[in-house]
Amino acid sequence: MQEVRRLKPSTVSRRMSVVAGFYRTCVIDQALPHSPADYVRRPNVPPESPTLGLSHLQFEAMLAAARDSTNRYDFALVAMLGLLGLRIFEASGANVEDLGEEHGHRVLKVRGKGGKVVPTPLPPAVARSVDRAIGNRAEGPILLNRRNARMDRHAATRRLVRLAEAANLPLPRMHPHMLRHTFVTTMLDAGVDLRDVQIAARHADPRTTMRYDRARKNLDRHPNYILAAYMASGT
């Protein structure tokens, strides 16, 4: 996988985890005396995500370009990926029937990894973008391509590339995961607690969220300052 297919360390490590889990189950079920994957070395995964997100100003430019686009699905696409943090298969798989209300909030029932359904609240800007996309339709996909069929990741990538060009963003490459990455990094930069960001991004492991935090070594955010400010009256 590394030498021939040139896969990234994170991909190799993830696939080896699946293999190790399979053999571990075989040992538990007594189909094998021991796991041949026990001593297989996995590649070192970089502590930071290799995916580059958009800066705050670049994200604003993308939102503005999508809002002004003549394609009514562009704004919904960018908002669902960048403001809700959906994975591309979650956004493209969302249907009009998944919209609803819970406890006074308008929500979208997102079908994530493993088929798990999570109600995600829609901020007003996202709700408006979705309403614009669905129009008078009562069912079917929220995002459609130019043939009025469900938008897939390839069509979404093409739309994002055109929007980046319209926004004059000099990006070497544009793909849907960049907006999910932007969702996480922008939240962290805004000071949202890591645990809350993890919940919003639906990461099972907080270490996954931490890989997006490129500013975690910034001393301006060191918790020592927060504690000192909290205890200022006694110090």
Q: Supply the CATH superfamily name of the domain at 56-204.
A: Intergrase catalytic core
Task: Report the total helices.
Answer: 10
What's the average pLDDT?
87
Oligomer: single chain
Spatial strand arrangement across the major sheet: 1-2-3
Number of strands: 3
CATH architecture name of the domain at 56-204: Orthogonal Bundle
For the terminal residues, how far apart are their CA atoms?
57 Å
Order of helices and strands: HHHHEEEHHHHHH
From the helix content, strand content and strand pairing, which structural class follows? mainly alpha
Q: Using the coordinates above, name the CATH class of the domain at 56-204.
A: Mainly Alpha
- Give the fraction of residues assigned to helices: 40-55%
Beta-strand percent range = 5-15%
Described by the principal axes of the CA atoms, the overall outline is globular
Biggest beta sheet summary: 3 strands, antiparallel
Describe the structure.
This protein is mainly α. The chain has a domain at 56-204: hpI Integrase, Chain A, CATH 1.10.443.10. It is 46% helix and 7% strand. It contains 10 helices and 3 strands, in the order H-H-H-H-E-E-E-H-H-H-H-H-H. The protein has a 3-stranded antiparallel β-sheet with strand order 1-2-3. Helix 2 packs antiparallel against helix 3 and helix 7 (177-189) packs antiparallel against helix 8. The longest helix has 20 residues, at 9-28.
Architecture blueprint of SSEs:
Layout: H1 9-28, H2 56-68, H3 72-82, H4 88-93, E1 99-102, E2 105-111, E3 117-121, H5 124-134, H6 153-166, H7 177-189, H8 194-201, H9 206-210, H10 223-230
Antiparallel strand pairs: 1-2, 2-3
Helix pairs in contact: 2-3, 3-5, 7-8
